[in-house]
Amino acid sequence: MNRAFSRKKDKTWMHTPEALSKHYIPYNAKFLGSTEVEQPKGTEVVRDAVRKLKFARHIKKSEGQKTPKVELQISIYGVKILDPKTKEVQHNCQLHRISFCADDKTDKRIFTFICKDSESNKHLCYVFDSEKCAEEITLTIGQAFDLAYRKFLESGGKDVETRKQIAGLQKRIQELETENAELKNKVQDLENQLRITQVHAPPAGSVTPKSPSTDIFDMVPFSPISPQSSTPTRNGTQPPPVPSRSTEIKRDLFGAEPFDPFSCGAGDFPPDIQSKLDEMQEGFKMGLTLEGTVFCLDPLDSRC
């Protein structure tokens, strides 16, 4: 197929690509709820879910509870379900996880979609009630899926690869910040110890012995922090030279090696990044069923 999708009744999309790719399309609706379903697609699957949620809503309505109103924000990145007043996000359904979307032909107010939950990997059916926009919302989700799939192919996975690199760099930065904080604490402890030593040090005018004290073997006690002295011991022997420290590895003032973001290999990336990329590609490959008609996708080419 030349087009990414086979559109039912040859309907044209009602929104500009810029509106869905750079912004989002908002809709207001009533949220009947969500329930787990066994299959990612199917008219009978959503029909049973709608019947179940309608029955539960009637019970709550008889108890005096009103059907909550929500705001839907549809874009190429997914469908967000928000509280219309506080704008708090209640659910964030990524577009490649949505496998089925339909409006009820027997009840023009009802529309629904099936989305795979990112945490439990269960298929959840979301059901909404809109007095005038049920079919329009369904088509808008279909258009967003179309644009998202085209963008995925055109980018050749570059956008996803960029996110992968950013995630790896963010992880490395977080590790360096943690290490930097630990080193600062060590420096602070050393400064505190130095102040205590200075407090207990003898006054400036006091007389210090010219020769260092020796032990029972007539040897000068060794101190790792004292400078190397060329003063011979009483028995006339010279103390052994102190080996110099290696300066091959350059470090900053906190003792940490300098960070080079371009030296990070693929092993530095979080292990779940590749699985997310595979899951995203699989979601687009599965396609989206709209109003009982499968949105047939072109096969994913080698660019992905």
Write structural notes for this entry.
It is a single chain. Strands 4-3-2-1-7-6-5-8-9 form a nine-stranded mixed β-sheet, with helices on both faces. Strand 6 and strand 7 form a beta hairpin. The chain contains five helices and nine strands. The chain has 304 residues and is of the alpha+beta class. The protein is elongated, with a radius of gyration of 34 Å. The longest helix is centred in the middle third of the chain and has 42 residues.
Structural class: alpha+beta
Q: Describe the sheet with the most strands.
A: 9 strands, mixed
The rounded distance between the terminal residues' Cα atoms is 19 Å
Strand content: 15-25%
- Helix content bin: 25-40%
Tell me, briefly, the overall form.
elongated
Compute the number of strand runs.
Answer: 9
Number of helices: 5
Order of the strands making up the biggest sheet: 4-3-2-1-7-6-5-8-9
